[in-house]
Structures are given as C-alpha cells and as structure tokens.
Design a protein that fits this description.
heterotrimer, A mainly alpha (272), B mainly alpha (332), C alpha/beta (250), A: mainly alpha, 71% helix, B: 332 residues, mainly alpha
C-alpha cells in the first residue's frame, strides 16, 4: 500500500504530465527523512509530521520543477531519463552527507503501536492505519482527477498544450502544481512507509525498479491502474516469498515482462 | 550537428585525427606504466560504451539494461574458467560473445517491438532477472561473494598476464582496435545510414519499405556481442567477477560516460570513459562524498546545456573560433 | 481494365468511433485520382490502411491481383506502393541526399550492406542525384532538410516516395502549408510524374485538385459520398452541402 501511495504520485507526474521521471524515489526519500526528523528530533506529533512530509517535499519539487524539469517537457525521452538519473545521483550524495548511511529511527506514537483485533485475528495497528489512510487518499485523488475541473484541465493540457493555453488555462502553473502534488504524494508515501521500508541514501535506486514496474504495469495516466498493479504486486510478492522464496523476484520480473508484452500500454493504460 | 559525417554524403576515409586515440594509448603504455591497470579499465569501458553508442546513439534504442550483456559475458568467461576449467582466453571470449549475442537476439526479438517507457522497463526487468539468477545460483556464480578462481592461460600460449598489466593492456587495446574498425565500417555503411534514419524517423523508415524490426534486432545483437566481449575482458583482466557487473548502477554509469563524451558520435564513446574514469580514480578517492553529487550535477548540466557532450562542445567551440571558414564550407 | 489498387468494404473503427465504413475504391494504372472531404472525414486513415500502417477492422485490400490486407508495410512498399506524409516526416537532421538515398537503397536491396561505405555506393548516389535534379533539388543535396524552406521540404517528401519507383503513389496533402507561389511548383512536379504511375492525392486546395485530378472521390464521415469526374463533382449538390455546411460551422 505504501508503494501504491508513492507510485500513484509517480503516475500523476509521469502519466498525466508525460515526463519520464526516474527521480521520483528521491521525493519519497525526502518525505521519509522529513517525517523521521520531524517525529524524532523535533518531537512533533504524528499528523503534523505527515503534513510536513507532504508539504516540504511538494515545495522542494516546485523549486526543482521551476528551475529544471520545466526546461525538459518538450525534450526527448533520453534527455529526461538522463536528467532524472543525474538528480538521483545528486540526491543520494546529499542524503548521505546529511544523514549518513544509516536509516533514522522512526518513533511512532503510542496509539499506533500494538495490535488491533479484527474478525477474530490480530493485526498490527499501524498497518491497518496505513491501509485505511491510503484508501482515503486514493478515493480523494480519484475524485480529484475524474470529477473536478482541475483534473479536466490537467488532462486537457497534456493532450494538447497549446490548445489548453489558448482557452486560458495557465499550463505553467497547472503543471507546477500537478508536479508538486505528485511529488508531495511521494513524500507522504515515503513518510508513511518509513517504519516499514527503511529510509536510506540508496532508497531512490533500490525502489526505482519497483515504482516503475507499478506504473508501467498499471498504465500511464490512470489512477486505478497503478492501484491494482501495486495491490497485485504486493500480494504476488508476499505469496511468492512465502511459497517459493528462492524464485520470488524472478516471478515478479517475469510477470512484468509478460504483461508489458501482452499490453505494452499497461493493464489500464489509456495513452498511446 | 549540421554536418552529417557519415551516410551517403560522408567521406569514409580515416582522417589523421582519428589516429590520435591510438597514439595516445600507445604513449600511455610507455610513459605511464604505473597507471596501466586504470588504462585497462578505460579500454574495456570504451568498448562497452561503443556498443551502447551503436544502439543508443545511432539506432536510437533507449535502454537501461545494457549491463545484462556485459554481465553475461563476464560470467560466461568466468564460469568457463573457474567451473569448467577452460582457460584459453580466445575460447572464453568467443563463448562470452556467443552467449551475449544469443541473449541479444532472444531478448531483442521480444522487446524491440515496444518503444519508450515500455522498452525502458523491459530492458531493466531483463537485467534484474539476470542479476537475480547470478545472486541465487551461488554454486555456479559465487553469488554475492563473487566468483573467484578465474584463471586465464597465456595468450597464444606465449604472453602471460603480468602483475603490471602490460599484456592485459595490449590485449584489450587490440580488441578495442578491432572493434573500432568494425563499428567504424558499420556506421559508414548503408546499414549505418539506415540506423540513423530509424533514429530520426521510424515512421518514415517503415514507409520506404525498411524491415525496421529485423534491423533493430540485428544492431541490438551486434551491440550485445560487443558488450559481452567487454565483460569477458573485464573478467580476464580482473580474474574475478562480482555481482555489480549486472547492476543497474553500471548501466547508469555507462550512460553517463557516453553522454559525457557525446552520444551518437563514434569518438564520444572514447572521450567519455577516459574523462569519467580518470576523474573517478582521482576524485572518488579524495572526495568520496562529493563524487556522486558531482556526476549527477555534470549529467544535469550536460542534458540542459550541452546535449552533444564534450565533443559537441568542442564542435561548437571550433565553429565559433573560425566562423568564416565554416560559413564558407556550409555554403558550398 | 484491372485495378492496380482496390479496396472492398474497408472498415475501421476506434472503439465506438467509426472512421471508415465500407469503402469500395479502385485505382488503375495512370489514374490521377483525388480524395477530398471535410476535416476528419477519414482520408489519412484510409491512406494509412492502404499502406499497412494501420490494420483495418474488416474488409480487404488488393494490390494488383494479390490480397495484401495482412501484408506488412515494408512488403507493400516492395510491391510498388509509395506514399508521402501530410505532416513532414523527413529525416530532418540528415542532408537531402541521404533522405532520398535511404529509400533508394532499400528498393535496390543495398540497405543492409554493413561493409562497403555508403559513400562508395555510387549507383545509389547517382540515381539519387538524378532524381533530385529532375525535381530541381540538385543544389540542395548536401543541405540538412531542416534548413530548407518548407516548400522544398514538401518536394523532398515527394522525392523520397518517387525513389521507391512506385506503381501506386499516395500523396497526402502534398501542398499543405505551402505558400501559393510554391504550390504552383509542386503542381508542376506532379504534372511531370511518369504517366503510368497511379496516383491518389488527398488535398484541400480545390484549385490544385481540379487542375490535377481526372477523377474525384468524396469521403464524408468515413463513407464514400460520391465518385465521379471533376465536372460532375463540381456540380453535385450533396458535395456543395457538405462543404457549405462545414463553412457554416466554422
């Protein structure tokens, strides 16, 4: 589920905006660090730390988007790929310089620790919270893209930028905000998941493949797609690790290749 | 960029400047004997970068998984020696080339129908699978500990790999020289012109009746073979194989080298690894924290301001420094 | 006379949107045939299906007597089908010579040579140069296409298609976006094309259509509205309605 929140952010930037953003994990990592710092060193309450993870990452992404990303919207795929790989390298170095190579500890508040009793079985409270929280985010995002004028404007701007501009949509601001939202979501995901997926400098590299798989499987420009893909991957991954631990990773990759060959645009892709 | 150096308008004769890299390499052999190990590494990476340049720079295939072929070549050579006791260097090279070529045909046939992000993902997934295999199949590959115990018999039964890397250097230099002749020939040929056509406009290549898909597989396979040979050379000169030869980082680093030198230019693949590896050797030891930041920063700068890499900059600079003569040349 | 290109009940739909419906169409050797119709009538889609760039939903396509509905684009080109693109689809960083030579090399089967330099394939360069000079492009051979004026770029489009020695030539808006003075030049080139080639032209410039075509098909919303000689089409009330109706909307 965490990976979903992160990946859905990527689906927003990559799918809706059509930018191959390999540096998405950087924002997730940033969110994770902000979250852990806010909780641990500053002793802020949990909800506030989450908000901070979302907004600071969003803000950071605005700066990067305005300064750098926006120059490459019309550039080729290669330039976008290389540029974002460059960003990853830089972010990894910065993270290492500030936080060292160890993951900062995450102090969860008391009310999210322990177990809850549901349907006769015990579940860790935090995981239940994560699932519920992600569901809320998914619902509101879906509503945002499919049902609001913001969503319509973004989709229009991506389809035909000049046209959208000529009917009075400020595409520059729209893209910046959309990018910030996508990155903010990554930050949020990174923060939420910090307890489960350790935040380390190598984070953007290690999980890059996974984010990309989720987005590629789910299909660009769709919110439902990455959600289902993340869910399937999560279940498949766990199942494989349980039954055939030796070959878990193979099956995930093989499945990815299979699905992409079968439907190059992903399971729910709309853009050609 | 305006002048097309290859294709039907490009004069294929070797210009004197094109001998410079070989003169430099020869001079380095005699003048810098203590740096030969680094030199060997550079030569291998030039070969590797050249193979990537062929598909990325000329044919326009974007891949994040080129290390699959390099790694496969490295492991095939290593396993032959360490597990099967085949120590003849040429047999190892041939086996590595064959295996990488086979992987190139098979994966190419599967993935080259797709484009853009999907293609990127597929290349990444294939490398990841190979990495998993190498990681899990410890009895064959040594897993995370790496594969040691690689032995290489003297080349032609006469030249034994020495501690100073003299034989290794010459060996790799000869391999690179042959590869250079081949690639150069290839890019000046109609096939090479056709590759540029596919990069520039695939739709049009279809419309003039080119079997685009088959040609892509062909060039992908040639490139895979070269990468496999480069990998085998690394194994033979290091006498060790580590999991990193299959890593995504390696593909990333290779891209950086090529971009730094200048993609789509034969000699971009030469300049890039030289600059990158020398800088790495020098800087990474002194400022390990800043090294990654530095590469990232340079990559961003190159993408934003110098898409042609170092050679692209050199071109521009040459044009500015003698605007008259070049204006006359382009007016003709 | 047998048709060199024929379609039978050709259909194409994207989901609920039908862009071609039961198109029956015949082209004979030496024909000068125009396909007109309002924007979005499905003209380019039709060309894409003829070429094999797009698979039809149903119906058949014949080249000569052979059913090529399932034949790949590259093979159709080898069998004598050539096209130009509505939007410039040139190799814009390459010189004019290379743009045309790439196609000629494909036709002559030299394109997969990996050893002998392209520069020394004199027969290809010679044929290219000859073709360029008949189109008045000889002086531009070494200039990258992107540095040419737009009108000349359109001529390069035609040159690439001609280099394939097509029996059937599909011209998708050869004069689109070209100033009227230069479109005269394009018409001259079209008039001088070898008489035996069957030509299908899509064009919005009615002046050019009526001067060039000897037969016209009108396509509206994916369906053939009518077909006939230019004089018949010019006086057809339904055609007037379609075009006037379109003007009312605009």
């Amino acid at each position: 589920m965490i990976l979903y929140v992160i990946s859905v952010g990527l689906s927003v930037t990559m799918g809706l905006m059509g930018f191959i953003n390999l540096a998405h994990g950087v924002f997730a990592m940033a969110g994770g660090y902000v979250f852990a710092t806010a909780l641990g060193r500053l002793g802020l309450p949990f909800p506030l730390a989450l908000l901070l993870a979302f907004f600071i990452t969003g803000l950071l992404s605005v700066v990067l988007e305005r300064l750098l990303y926006s120059r490459l919207y019309n550039a080729g795929e290669l330039a976008q790929v290389l540029f974002t790989i460059g960003l990853i390298f830089m972010a990894v170095a910065v993270a290492r310089a500030i936080y060292g190579t160890l993951a900062p500890p995450v102090f969860l508040p008391e009310y999210l620790k322990g177990q809850v009793h549901v349907l006769g079985r015990d579940f860790p409270t935090y995981r239940v919270f994560l699932i519920l929280f992600s569901a809320v985010i998914i619902a509101s995002l879906w509503f945002g893209v499919e049902r609001t004028s913001w969503g319509a404007m973004v989709r229009a701007a991506v389809d035909h930028r000049a046209m959208a501009q000529s009917v009075g949509i400020n595409t520059r601001r729209l893209f910046t905000l959309t990018f910030a939202l996508g990155s903010g979501l990554a930050g949020l995901g990174g923060g939420l998941g910090a307890d489960i997926i350790a935040v380390q400098p190598s984070y953007p590299f290690e999980h890059l493949v996974f984010f990309l798989i989720v987005v590629a499987l789910g299909g660009l420009g769709s919110l439902r797609g990455p959600f289902i893909a993340a869910l399937l991957l999560g279940i498949a991954d766990t199942a494989c690790k349980y039954w055939i631990p030796e070959f878990g990773a193979f099956l995930i990759y093989a499945a990815t290749i299979g699905v992409l060959l079968w439907r190059p645009m992903g399971l729910f892709g709309t853009r050609v | 960029m305006s002048a097309n150096l290859t294709g039907y308008t490009g004069d294929p004769r070797i210009r004197w400047t094109e001998w410079l890299p070989w003169i430099v390499a020869g001079a380095a052999f005699f003048l810098l004997p203590e740096y030969l190990a680094l030199g060997v590494r550079i030569l291998i990476f030039i070969l590797f970068a050249l193979s990537l340049d062929l598909i990325l720079g000329y044919a326009g295939i974007i891949t994040l998984g080129h290390s699959a072929f390099f790694g496969l070549g490295a492991y095939v050579a290593g396993c032959l020696s360490a597990k099967a006791g085949v120590s003849d260097p040429f047999v190892q090279l041939a086996a590595a080339a064959g295996a990488a070529g086979l992987l190139g045909v098979l994966t190419g046939a599967v993935i080259l129908r797709t484009r853009a992000l999907t293609l990127l993902m597929l290349t990444l997934a294939i490398t990841s699978i190979l990495l998993e295999i190498a990681n899990k199949w410890t009895s064959m590959t040594g897993g995370a500990d790496g594969l040691s115990g690689v032995t290489v018999a003297p080349i032609l039964g006469a030249f034994k790999f020495d501690l100073f890397g003299r034989v290794a250097f010459i060996y790799c230099l000869v391999a690179l020289f042959l590869a250079w002749l081949l690639v150069r020939r290839l890019i000046y040929s109609p096939f090479g012109a056709m590759l540029t056509g596919m990069r520039e406009n695939t739709m049009r290549m279809h419309a003039v009746g080119a079997p685009v898909y088959l040609r892509l597989i062909a060039v992908y396979t040639i490139s895979a073979v070269m990468a496999g040979v480069a990998g085998a050379l690394l194994t033979q000169t290091n006498q060790f194989v580590g999991l990193n030869v299959l890593g995504f980082d390696l593909s990333g680093e290779l891209l950086v080298m090529l971009i730094l030198g200048g993609v789509g230019r034969l000699y971009g693949a030469f300049i890039g690894p030289v600059v990158y590896l020398i800088a790495q050797d020098y800087l990474a030891k002194q400022f390990p924290e800043y090294w990654y930041f530095g590469i990232g920063f340079i990559l961003v700068l190159v993408v934003l301001f110098a898409p042609g890499g170092i050679l692209g900059l050199a071109d521009k600079w040459l044009r500015f420094s003698k605007p008259r003569s070049s204006a006359r040349a382009s007016a003709r | 006379m047998a048709a060199v290109l024929e379609t039978q009940k050709l259909c194409k739909s994207f989901g609920a949107l039908t862009v071609a419906q039961n198109i029956d169409f015949r082209l004979h050797a030496g024909d000068r045939h125009a396909l007109i119709g309002p924007n979005g009538a499905g003209k380019t889609t039709f060309v894409n299906m003829l070429m094999g760039a797009l698979a039809p939903s149903s119906g058949r396509i014949y080249l000569g007597s052979e059913d090529v509905t399932r034949v790949r684009q590259a093979q159709r080109v080898k069998r004598g089908l050539g096209r130009t693109f509505q939007i410039n689809a040139l190799f814009k960083h390459l010189p004019v010579l290379d743009n045309v030579a790439l196609g000629i090399a494909e036709r002559r089967g030299d394109a997969s040579h990996v050893w002998k330099p392209a520069f020394l394939h004199k027969h290809i360069i010679g044929e290219t140069a000859e073709l360029l000079s008949t189109l008045g492009l000889a002086d531009d051979a070494r200039i990258p296409v992107k540095d040419l004026p737009y009108g000349k770029q359109r001529l390069v489009e035609i040159a690439i298609a001609l280099g394939l020695s097509p029996k059937v030539l599909l011209l998708d808006e050869p004069a689109a976006g070209v100033p009227s003075m230069e479109s005269e030049r394009i018409l001259q080139v079209l008039d001088r094309l070898p008489a035996e080639i069957a030509i299908l032209i899509i064009e919005h410039d009615m002046d050019l259509v009526f001067r060039f075509a000897r037969r016209i098909t009108v396509l509206v919303q994916g369906e053939v509205l009518t077909e006939g000689a230019p004089s018949e089409i010019a006086h057809d009330r339904r055609v007037h309605q379609v075009y006037l109706g379109e003007q009312h909307h605009a």
